[in-house]
């Protein structure tokens, strides 16, 4: 992976003209692009370190440095994402830019014939369809003018309706907290997430115990069973997908069992 990262940086360095970054062309050049020393200066690193990076040696590039390099090299959104992926780093700016979602969230869930909703990293519901609103009474059946987005964890641990609706609540609660820990990863210290965790830990003894256990599991699909107050017992197969342009957003679909 290091060699691919170095090759990618070198290729884009050599196609970035000095004029595009405010430097004089100056003298004869082997290529029309930036010299390694020039890119190093613009990124505020040593030429030796950049040489090692381009050669694929075991050197680590921080997210801040990668962001600066992406700006200097005028990388597109796709190229920037690829750069961070090769370096195995999270691009905080891209990952958390709601304006860059690029997806009609309401249209996505409306097109699904079954309960469907989209969660952000904090597990706030950003969009849901009428099937989901009908299933999750007490969570998604809120007014559009509500002051805050409905949060799945708050519903699970603070709303008594969740225990009556979700069959096998204890096991689902355990998995949800373990999935949430895996989902947020390094972002747990961000203010919004830290505040949510502190709030739930204070208000719910069950959440506090599960969060303290440090369990981690991947968010998976599988059978989900509900005891709806009007429709009775219902079963669905859950499928969870990440949106292509916003990896911090998850599309959750509950497909009726045959």
Automatic annotation (TrEMBL):
What Gene3D superfamilies does the database record attribute to this sequence? 3.30.450.180, lambda repressor-like DNA-binding domains
Which PANTHER family is this protein grouped with?
A: BLL4672 PROTEIN, BLL4672 PROTEIN-RELATED
Taxonomically, what lineage is the organism? Bacteria, Pseudomonadati, Pseudomonadota, Betaproteobacteria, Burkholderiales
Family annotation (SUPFAM superfamilies)? lambda repressor-like DNA-binding domains
- Name it: Helix-turn-helix domain-containing protein
The segment(s) forming the HTH cro/C1-type domain are 8-80
- Record the organism: Duganella lactea
Which Pfam families is this protein grouped with?
A: HTH_31, MLTR_LBD
